[in-house]
Amino acid sequence: MVEKQDSLLDIEQEIKSYPNLTVLWNRACKEFAYKSAFSNMGSTLTYAELDETAQHLAAYLQHHTDLEPGDRIAIQLPNVLQYPVCILAALRAGLVIVNTNPLYTASETIKQFNHAGVKAVIILANNAHMIEDVVPKTSVKTVLITELADLHPFSRRLLLNFIAKYIRKIVPKYKVPGAVHFREALIKGARCSLLPVEQTPEDLAVIQYTVGTTGRPKGAALTHRNLIANVIQLKSRLPDTLRVGEEIAIAPLPVYHIYGFMLNCLVMPLLGAQVVLITNPRDTSGFVNELGRWDFTVFSGINTLFVSLCRHPLFGQLDMTRLKLTLSGGMALTRSVSDEWEALTGCPIYQGYGLTEASPVVAVSYVKGAQFGSVGQPLPLTDVRIVGEQGEALCAGEIGELYVRGPQVMSGYWQDDSAIPDADGWLATGDIARIADDDSLRIVDRKKDIINISGFPVYPNELENIISSHVDIVECAVIGLPDEQSGEVIKVFVVTQNRRLTVKQVRDYCRERLTSYKVPRLVEFRTYLPKSHVGKVLRRTLLDEELAGLQKYRKRL
Questions:
Q1: Domain coordinates of the chain in residue numbers?
Q2: For residue 483, what are the β-bridge partners?
Q3: Of these four, 214, 318, 467, 541, which has the most CB atoms within 10 Å of its CB?
């Protein structure tokens, strides 16, 4: 059973018991050596196998490259077995991890690598053709290329890699001078001894890129202490029904994203859980089939992922009687999705709130008695406050910008001198929120997304929650467009499976449930909405498209 923390002092002492993330991983590998650690595409690594493989890779990085402790290494992989191995190997070699989206273009990768000063990269063969253009324009000297099934048993490895390359043809030809195959690195590393590396709690562990509070990509510099603190804080809030060494967690969100990284690559190993890595959750049919193979107990996702699963005809037929905990984060959860998930699975969705700059979790709802819309009380050792437009402190119930302070909050952005957080450790989140009388948080919306209608603020999250409750609406997104009379007008983009649904019906539905100025003036039906790599609906993309269209229209006049 997961031990509940009795006091803040207990939590502080537990945080101090892990001087760095390497110690956290090493303890997990030793304590749960013969238990399953990570599974993917039909194969599983035990904690002992993970330990040994990571040791070989770390030794290779120490003895066969010019990398030194503190150098940055990019891990540019999807959810495959190699990811946790690379994380542990990089930590043991004293390197700083730069989690990188494998879907990035060459230009996006070059910008990130140059900003972070990346000297090494581990990349999937499917994307290796892209790295050809990257290496000459960056400081990268070490390139390791791995194939999808490199850590699967011999016969299965040969089969899956053959299918990927020659049947599905998803591995374009590439030529990267000096690149080393992942398995060759493991063989060479097995002949070397791993050298111990000193790491302090304040040493940098991860540079995690985010548009977060700034609106443009920046690297949140997260130390070992930041991440360990958040692991222990989050662990203290997990339900006591979770049992050490017995849980099976489904990981559909990419572990290169801070949400998936924290939960499935740090918290779950601490509990000795088995993590099932889902490589392509957008293949909903394949995802549902994979879920049918596991008696999973923990599931993490975001609103759009829950939508796609609930709408699949076979999802409701799965046996989910063992599911104990479903977590949602990353974007607002809508009431209709929450209700539908609970009806199908028997397990409510509990919401959390965080941001990359806070490692990332700030608050999570209690498992018992959580109200919809609440992201729960702040984690232990975490302070929050609500600030008005003039910088004044607001009282409980008042709406303003959320500020956060705690041991999980970064000290700043990589290669950036701006004072974020401020001198007292407070981080302005860019999120509009209010604190209830019971100290729980409710996130209203992103500050930059608020729509102004004749001086009245309109929060897209509120509208999306109500509009998506329509029986024929799968999902929706709300934005504000410039208007000479009212300042802005509301437009909603709707995805529906009912071709007979009309604009009038959507607006009538809104009129019955919303104040008149909140009713969208414009309604557009779409077959899909643009989403980020984790499935978050991109309102900004929709807005940019609309503004570009308006500009073209005005030019024609």
A1: 46-199, 450-556
A2: 487
A3: 467
